[in-house]
Amino acid sequence: MTRGTEPDPASPDGGPPLDYRRRPCTECPWRRDADLGKFTDSDFAKLEATNGIPGTEAPPSAAAMSCHLDQPDTAHPLRLCAGWLAVIGYHHLAIRLHVIANRLPPAALTADADWPALYDDLAEMKRHRPNRSQDLSTMRSSASQA
């Protein structure tokens, strides 16, 4: 992660603050108004690998979710996703440890009042995802008729 843009204090062990988005991007999958059809099965598998819920928190070794719009070697490589932090962050043990170590402010784990509505958890997001197998069979059927 790159150094944050806010004046967050360095952690007690000298580690730099983590960089994170300050609000969900326009295509954030955690937004209720996002087009979840844009996200592949592979994308959802990555979300599943970062997921934690009350009583079944993601272990410290679990991956964290960066914004899907950020790319390596750009102005903002791999900032933590604001939507993911607000929904899942508290249930991810590595993120809690970063908060304790002052590498991430506690406010990063809370949606601001002016944010768009977010899904409550990954299970809810998956329930709202379009049926991709139906989409694929429709595509195959259309292709065979051409």
From TrEMBL:
Any Pfam family the entry gives: DUF6283
Chain segments carrying region Disordered: 1-24
Domain of life from the UniProt record: Bacteria
InterPro entries: DUF6283 (IPR046250)
This protein's name: Uncharacterized protein
Native source species: Actinospica acidithermotolerans
Lineage: Bacteria, Bacillati, Actinomycetota, Actinomycetes, Catenulisporales
